Automatic annotation (TrEMBL):
<keyword id="KW-1133">Transmembrane helix</keyword>
<keyword id="KW-0812">Transmembrane</keyword>
<feature type="transmembrane region" description="Helical">
    <location>
        <begin position="49"/>
        <end position="82"/>
    </location>
</feature>
<dbReference type="InterPro" id="IPR032808">
    <property type="entry name" value="DoxX"/>
</dbReference>
<protein>
    <recommendedName>
        <fullName>DoxX-like family protein</fullName>
    </recommendedName>
</protein>
<keyword id="KW-0472">Membrane</keyword>
<feature type="transmembrane region" description="Helical">
    <location>
        <begin position="6"/>
        <end position="28"/>
    </location>
</feature>
<dbReference type="Pfam" id="PF13564">
    <property type="entry name" value="DoxX_2"/>
</dbReference>
<feature type="transmembrane region" description="Helical">
    <location>
        <begin position="94"/>
        <end position="114"/>
    </location>
</feature>
Amino acid sequence: MNTYASVAQIIVALSVGFVWVFRFDNIVHEFRQYELSDLTRTMVGATKIILATLLVAGIWYPALVLIPALLMGLLMAAAQYFHFKVSNPWSKHLPSLFLLVLCVFIAAVSLKLIS
C-alpha cells in the first residue's frame, strides 16, 4: 500500500506544481472569480507548493507525510467550497475533488488506517 501512497504523493505534487506554475493564468482568473485577493492567491500558491514539496520528500522521510497531506486536503476542500460558491460546472470540481480523495488516501496510509 505504501507504493500506492507514494504514487499518490507524486500525482498530487506534480498536479499542484503544474497548475500553479504552467497554468497560473487560470489560477488568476479563478481567484478573481472567487473575489479573493492577490495576497490570498499568493499565500495559497506558496503553501500548496511547499506542501507538494513535503509530500515528495515524504517518500524518503515518511514522518513528513501526514501533516502536508491533511493540509493539502484542507486546501482542496476549500477549493470545493469556492467552486460551489460560484456555481462552477462539475468539470471544474473534479480536479480538486480527485486530489482531495488522494490526500485522504495518503493520510490514511500514513496513519496506518489502510495497510
